[in-house]
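Troubleshooting: if your tokenizer reports a length mismatch, compare your output against this known-good record of 70 residues.
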Amino acid sequence: MKSEYSQIIFLTILYNLIWLSSLIFATGHIVGLNIDDNQLLAYILVFITFLTSFISFKIKEITKRRLMVK
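Known-good structure output:
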């Protein structure tokens, strides 16, 4: 069974994908990236949360490898 940490990271990434797709489809008339003043902050927040979850996952993976080697 997966650890709770992996499940939380998976749910965070899934939530970010949903958030990103809702931003893409929120333009109304044209489907695509619409970077205006209101959505720019949201795109930045999605990028930051993707980045932190990916880095967190990689750090956890590296520490698991180090513990296995010892």
